Amino acid sequence: LLQDSTHSSLFMANLTQLCSGLPLDPLPSLKCRDESVPHAPIRNHNLTHDEKKLALKNALRYFPSRLHKTLAGEFATELEQYGHIYMYRFLPPICMKAYPIDDYPVKCKQAAAIMHMIMNNLDPRVAQFPHELVTYGGNGQVLSNWAQFWILMNYLSQLTEEQTLVMYSGHPMGLFPSHPMAPRCVITNGMVIPNYSSREKYDKMFALGVTMYGQMTAGSYCYIGPQGIVHGTTLTIMNAGRKYLKANNLTGKVFVTSGLGGMSGAQAKAAIISGCIGVIAEVNKAALLKRYEQGWVMEWTDNLEDCISQIRYARHEMKTLSLGYLGNIVNLWERLAEEYEKSGELLVELGSDQTSLHNPFGGGYYPVQLTFEEAQEVMETDPVRFKCLVQESLKRQVNAINKLSSHGMHFWDYGNAFLLEARRAGAAVTKSDPDSFIYPSYVQHIMGDIFSLGFGPFRWVCTSADPCDLDTTDNITLQVLEGILAKGVPDSVRQQYEDNCKWIREASKHELVVGSQARILYCNDEGRVKIALAFNQAVADGRLRGPVVVSRDHHDVSGADSPYRETSNIEDGSQFCADMAIQNVIGGACRGATWVAIHNGGGVGWGEVINGGFGLVLDGSKDAEEKAQRMLSWDVMNGISRRAWSGHPLARGVLCNAMATDPLLQVTLSHDVEDISIVNEAFIH
Fold it and tell me: Is the pTM of this model over 0.70?
C-alpha cells in the first residue's frame, strides 16, 4: 500500500512511523484511488441529505478542526462515489504484511502479537479488498476507515499490561486501566439493539461510520487466509463422501460449487487434498487468477463446453483436479442438468455453494443475467432491479440443482445463507414446514457430530514469521496427537484423530500458507490444551523463535449461535438464542484470553448470527501456561454443555467424561423424555 508524501514520492514508512499516530503535519498528499487493486462494490446507503452531513461530521471528528475544510470535500466525494468514507488519503505507506513480532515498537509483546494479526488481515495477498479494509466475504471489515487503523496502531504501541484497549465496531475508544490478567483488547462489532438489526439499517449505520460488519475473523483480527477454512472444507468433502456416497476414496467423484474469493477460495485446495474433482465457478477474473497464481486452482477455463469436457476427462482418467470455471455458477448448474437430460450421464456427485449470500444485493452474489461488469453497474445505479435479478437467478440455480438432486446428486448448504436467500427469492427449497429446507446445512448432516464431539477449527500463528517455526509446531502437534491416540481414545473420535494426524503430516506439502505462518486443525479440548502447552514450552526453551498466538474460527463448538449453520442441529427451540456465544466471550475474557471479540453477523449475514472469538498469546511464561489450561477447556466445554442440554447424545457423552476427570466441572444434565406418549397425552382434553 503505497502513498505519496509531500517530503518524498513513494516512500516506505517503517513500523515506528506507522505507530506514531495519524500523519497530520503535513497531511499525506491526495491521490486517485488505485484501480489496479481489487475494490469493494459500491455500497448503497440510502442516506438522506441530513444523514450525509452527519456521516461527514462523524468522519471529520478524527481530525483537528484546522483540517476539516481540507478534508471535508474529499470525504464527501468518497461517500457519494463509493457509499462509504474510507479515507483513502491515509492509506499507510508501507508493505502491509505480518512482520516478525520483535519488529514492532511496543511496551508489551501481547500488543505486538495483535499488530501482527491485524496487518496480516490487511495483507493484499490475504485481504479481498485491502484498500477498503475488507478481509473476506465481500464486506468483512477489519476496521471502518484508515484513520482508525493509525489510531489503533498508536494505541497498541503504548499499551501496557495494566491497560485494556477497547474497540467499538472499528473505532478505537481508548486505553483503560485494568490488570495483567485482563484481556489486552476487547472488541465488539455490530452490537446493534435487536429491533434495529435489519440489513437496511445496517447499510445506513455503516455509511454513517457508527457500526461495521466484522464477518467472523476479519473484525477479530484472527483470519489466516483461505487456509483458515481448508481443513474444515476438506473434512466436509471427505465426510460427505463417507455419508452420502459410502466412499472413503473420492477419486473420480465430482464436487461442484462456487466462489474463489476470500474463504471460499479454500474449496479448490480442499478438493485436491480430498482427492476428488473440484469444479469451482467464479465470476471475478481477478479472484480466480489470484487463486490460480497461488497454486490453489490447478487449471481454469472460461469456456463452458471446455469445462464439461474437462470434467468428463478427469472422471474417465480418475484424475484429482481443481478446475476454476470463469463464469456464473448458474450457467454451470444448468449445463450439467442439460447434459443429464440429453445423455443420462450424471457428471456431479456432490454440490454446494459458497457465494457470499449473507450480502446478496451488495456484491455477494452476481446474477446470471448480467456480466460481472454489468452487475457492478446495475448494483449501483438500479438496486431495485438488481435485487430482482438476483432473486430470479437464485430460482434458476435452485431449479437446476433440484433436477440433478432428483437423479442422485447430493447438495448441502455451506452456511452462507444460500437456502435462506433462495427461500426469500421464492425458490423451491422448503418442505411442507416453511421453516424446513429440502437440503441440509452441512452442520446438520456432516459437521454437526464433529461439533458435538468437541472438535472445531483451532488455529495458531507463529509470530516470528519464520517458516521453520511453523514446521516445528507441526512436528510438536503430530507428537501430541500421536500421544493421545497411543493412550487410547473413544471409538467415536478415533476417525477424527486419525484424520488430524494425516492432515498435519501432509500440511506443509500442500503449501497452505498465504500471509502469516499459520496452521488450522480441527481439534477437541484435550488436543487444544495439550498442543498449546507444548507450544508454550517450546517458546520457553527456545525451540520456537517467538511467541505463538492460538485462536480459532468463530465457526466452532461454542463460538457462534446461528440457527441456519452452527446451531442448526439444536432441536430444543434454543437455536435462535445467543447465550452460548455471549457467555463464551465473557468466559474467555475472565479466564485469560489476550483479546476477545463478539460480533453480530458473520457467514450467514447481519442479524442472523451472534459469534465471538479470541486470541491467546503463548510467550513461554508460567502465566501463559495457566491461561491456556483455564481458557481453552472452557472455550470448548461451554458449547458441549449447551449441545448436551439440547439433547445431543454425543455431546452428553463427552460432557460426562469431562466431569468424571475434572471435579471442578459440574454441569446440569437433562433428563430426556423416554416415553413420548406422556407428552402427547398431556394435551388431550
Answer: yes
